[in-house]
Structures are given as structure tokens and as C-alpha cells.
Amino acid sequence: MFLSTRGIPYRTQMREVMQRIRILTANAGALGDQLEDAVFAHGPDVVALTGVGPARALRLAAPRSMRAATQSWSGENAGLALLWKAGLAVGSLDRFDFGQSGEPHGALRISFPLDGRQVSVYCSSLSSEHAVPTRQLARLAELIDAARQPSLAACEGAGTDAGAWSRCADAWTAAQRRVVTLAATSDAGLAVRQAFGIAREAAPVYGRSQAGPIWLCSEEFSVIESRSIAVAGAPDRLVWTATVALRASAADENVAIAL
Asked: Rounded distance, CA 145 to CA 21, Å?
């Protein structure tokens, strides 16, 4: 016999909790000293940062008992970092270079089990040149497609091509619930129009990608909520969060439990 709360079996509740994960991404170099408060006020399970060096990433992770993986190039803020809660059993780490001669363009990937499935999380930075990001985004798409497993990708510089993949979608536009969190000095009307892509100053997707990395989610995930967070002192740079849940796999749809 199972313990129940409000009529929901205890094991079912635990399974739903394990399926859900909160992820957060930001450009650390653009946020400066506001990063610590902005990032960890929301209790993420995984953090993906661009524009960050290894030393700073470790300073962020250590006081919060988080693990960290980094990828760095020349320059103080030319790097990527993935931070995750110690409870996530990360079993693999991979680094990929998309640029040439030490250009700060590439991807960092970790993988861990979630609700019986292997999940990959990427943090990537693409070139700002007009033609190059398309090729680099295609390379990232190849990595995700080759893995054939649930994947999340924080991608800076993705531009309007971010929604063009067959297996991935922009977490903000796909979210069941979208929330705009404003800094105290923000122009509320402008911030909301920009977040929803209806301000003259910002294109719907490209303008958002220039404000920091955006989250891309593969089709195995449902996006429960996505949040655009404005930071005081850096109104043109945003923090993005998404709460995602694994969809039921085919094997889970016909599970029988004997009482």
C-alpha cells in the first residue's frame, strides 16, 4: 500500500518531482557583480553561463555546493561554464570547438540520468559574424541529433535560426507560462514588449538572443514555465530560466502497478 497526499500515490509524486528540472542561463560577463544575486535567487538545478572564466565559475559554485565544468579561451570573460547541484549524477563531460585559432566559440556538454533516461545539457557560444553562426548552429544541432536523447541547450548568438531544428524549440516561446521579472528601475511597458517581441527596438527572437543565451529544448521536454529576468544596472542583458519536465516515454504509458 502506498502513502498518499491529496489522492496522489506517493511514488507518483516522487516520479513527477524527478522529471522536473529548473535551468538558468545568463551572460556572466555582461552582468558583472549582479550575477550572484540574479542567478541563485531562483534556485536552479543547472546553470549555463557564457562570458565567464574558470576561476569565477568556481567561485560561484563552491559556496552553494554545486559542481562546475568549464571551457576557456584567451581572455578573462572568454569561456563557458555549466554548474549543477551535487544531487545530479553527472557521468560525462565533453568540450567542442566551433571556431579557429582559439576563437571563443564552442560548446560544453554534461550528461546525467533523470527519471531513468540520460539527459544532455549544452552551453554554447556562437560567432557574431553574419554567416558563421548558421554553420556553428548546424554543428550544435548535429551533436544534439546524434545523441538521440533528451537535450537542453543554452545558446548565445543563435539568432532567428534557433527555432529551425526539427527536434528543438526556444523554451521561451514554447512555455506554457511566460513571466517577465523586472528590475526596480525598468520601464515596465518597454520590458514586457521586448520580452514578447513586440517592441520596435527588438526583433522577436534575434533581439532576445543578443541579450544573453536562450534555452533550446528538445522535443522530449515540456516547458512548464519560462522567465525573463531583468537585472538592475544591466537592463539590456537578461537572465533566462525555464522549468522543464520530461514527457512520458512510450514505455511509461502502459505501466501497471500491483497493490
From this structure: 21
72: phi then psi, degrees, rounded to nearest 5: -130, 155
Contacts of 62 (CB under 8 A, 6+ apart): none
Percent of the chain with pLDDT over 70: 68
Count the neighbouring beta carbons within 10 Å of the beta carbon of residue 165: 18
Greatest extent of the chain over all pairs of C-alpha atoms, in Å: 62
Tens-place pLDDT, residues 222-242? 999 999 888 776 666 788 999
Q: What is the mean pLDDT of the chain?
A: 78
CA pair distance 68, 46, nearest whole angstrom: 10
Taking the complete model, does pTM exceed 0.90, yes or no?
A: no
Grid cell digits, residue 201:
527596438
